Amino acid sequence: MTAVTERQQLAYIAGQAVDARVNVELETGGMTLNLGPQHPATHGTLRIIARLDGEQVISADPVMGYMHRGYEKLTEVRTYPQVTTLINRIDWLGSFANEVPFILAAEQLMDVEAPPRAQHIRTILFEMARCANIILFLGDMGVQLGALTPVFFAFRDREHVLNQIEAATGGRFHPNFDRIGGLKDDLPKGWIAETKAVMEKVRTFCDEMEDLLMGNEIFEARCRGIGVIPAEVAHQYGLSGANLRASGVDFDLRRDRPSPLAWNQADWKVWTHPDGDSYARYWVRLQETREATKIVDQLLDDLPAGPVMAKVPRIIKVPAGEAYVSTENPLGEMGYYVVSKGGLGPFRVKIRTPSFSNISVVPWVMKGVYVPDIITILGSLYFILGDIDR
Amino acid sequence: MSPEGAIAEETEAPPEPDVEREQLLATLAESLGEGLVESHLIPGLDLWVRVTPQAWTTACTVVRDRLDLRHFDFLSAIDWMPSPYGKGEDDPTEEPKELDTEVVQGYAGGETRFQVIARMAGTGNHLAVNLKVDIGDDMTLPTIVGVYAGADWHERETWEMFGIFFDGHPGLKHIYLPGDFEGHPLRKDFPLIARMVKPWPGIVDVEPMPPQLEEEPAASDAPADDDAGVQDPPGDAAESATGEPSVTGESSANSEGDDA
User: Residue B200 falls within a domain, yes or no?
Assistant: First the structure.
């Protein structure tokens, strides 16, 4: 990996200055470009209103809410076990990972701990959800920059992962498998060997993506130095996940926060990149997928024996209290602030979704970029609309 | 569990003092003075601090600069009033239940119905702090966009959902809801319309089971009658209802045919 050289940065700034001068001469200022809500680059219904000066963006204002489902209100009329059905639909590409922090928050309030086998299987499914989610990003990023092949590879290999998730949980997209105190079921017979084979396929996929895109001249030209987010800005806007690590911040909730899940029992590495540009974000996610397969492989090897469900009452009542639990989800830090008043359902749930914070940096980062760079930046920040709108 | 194990657990039970979080709290108390109202610390887990509205911006700056919790997690609000509508799951034919109306705040206490909560975390350590602040009757709080730029959208959302106005915010406009939307949906006195227009279907589940059918033989008669209705003209079916012997013979022949 090579950092963007100072020379490249200067060339970029000089180019922008020349363009700005030409734009003033041609009097091209004052155009408004409406991108979306139905635009392929927005993965759903995000709308971006960009004020342009020629080819340059003066300001970009994301408009969302086209998919707001009011989950925070809905949780207030549901019981704890019913809430997992809702929150499965927040980040629909990595659904299992959405359930985990909420269940952990409820367990923390109830002072219940799932047995070690359940924690292991949770971690395995969590990392598989990460694979399923990020594989799609790795292919989709190519499509947004004009390379059509990677996305077919991505859909092909994501299918293997989804099949395994379905075999274990019964649901391809919405497993709804996590329970307070453990898991609904144990793993099916023969699942471990099959999953290892699938993880091998995912690693091959990562190698293919590296061959297809990382060395590609067009890909590099469109990504390097585009949408640079410095570490300090990333902190201020609450960026998390790969977006934060691509800005050179060595922070991963899986490693840096105490968690009942089994991440600390595997040997893996947190990757960071000093550049903070779109290329760095792609590169970090690629490495993360590889690390996820490693975690799954290792945890499958030393899966402890025992039950997958702790003893919990049949009717779940959570004692009064407040808890915030967040985990490192495929898109970044996902957390639930759960307020309980001792009833069957939560009193208030604040859902802290990664995409909401990740996209809030868009008005800042899109100042002064060119129109095609909008697509690159949106693609590389990687969001799921359900995760922004909740 | 052996008795020794139970004893060992009991001796371990008093948790070690949480030095790092106590240090955070001490620094906050020192910098804010009167501004810090109340705090709640669960050793090894989390820290809640309630500050006065006047000290809100200062508290956020101290958290960022002196405590070095530079990562902005979220900002939101809590409406502590219990919902006057309940869960909308009660049977409408029954007498409405007495609902709790007492406003009880959570950790670190409080005096008002609305509270804003913000959470900041450190990336070099595993620490974080939950800042709470009471919102008075004017429903106004100074913005912290100048301290944490990411609070921009979170404050817009809180304004829209709770009606809390953030003084000095650069563009307080709707983020999720259409511009002409009236009301603040996450307030507890905003009804969830879906539960108002139609009784919750879950009510059906708690209905008592229908009384056990006494006439077991009637169940075997019923399919025979059905067969007669399908295969014979309606006149014959009417005869079967009168219970003539010739008809019972016919129906038994039918049932034999079914078996074959």
Answer: yes
User: Which of B88, B148, B149 shows the shortest C-beta gap to A77?
Assistant: B88
Say if B10 falls within a structural domain. no
On whether both B135 and B47 belong to a single domain, the answer is yes
Q: Return the structure tokens found at A249.
A: 């911040």
Question: Which are the contacts of B252, defined by CB distance < 8 A and separation ≥ 6?
Answer: none
CATH architecture of the domain A71-389 equals Orthogonal Bundle (1.10)
Residue extents of the structural domains in chain A: 71-389
- Please give the model's pTM, rounded to 2 decimal places: 0.78
Q: Find the residue in A nearest to B189 (Cα).
A: A73
Q: What is the pLDDT of residues A116-144, one digit of tens each?
A: 999 999 999 999 999 999 998 888 888 88
Tokens of B29: 């108390």
What does the DSSP 8-state code read for residue A180?
T
Q: Do residues A181 and A107 make contact, with C-beta atoms less than 8 angstroms apart?
A: yes
Tally of domains in chain B? 2
Q: What is the pLDDT of residues A172-230, one digit of tens each?
A: 888 888 888 888 888 888 899 999 999 999 999 999 888 888 888 888 888 888 888 88
> Residue B241 belongs to what H/E stretch?
helix B234-242
Chain A hits for B118, Cβ within 8 Å: none
Cβ distance A337 to B74 less than 8 Å, yes or no, reads yes
- Are B181 and B228 found together in one domain? no
Domain that holds residue B140: 16-206
d(CA B182, CA B88): 22
* CA distances from residue A135 to A203, A207, A293, B179 in whole angstroms, order as listed: 10, 12, 12, 37
Is residue B5 a part of any domain in this protein? Answer: no
| Same domain membership, residue B176 and residue B82 | yes
Q: Are residues B224 and B118 in the same domain?
A: no
Whole-angstrom Cα distance, residue A35 to residue A32?
10
Q: For strand B140-142 and strand B165-167, is the pairing parallel, antiparallel, or unpaired?
A: parallel
Q: Is residue B211 part of a domain?
A: no
Whether residue A51 contacts residue A32, with contact meaning beta carbons closer than 8 Å, is answered with yes
Residue A11 belongs to what H/E stretch?
helix A6-26
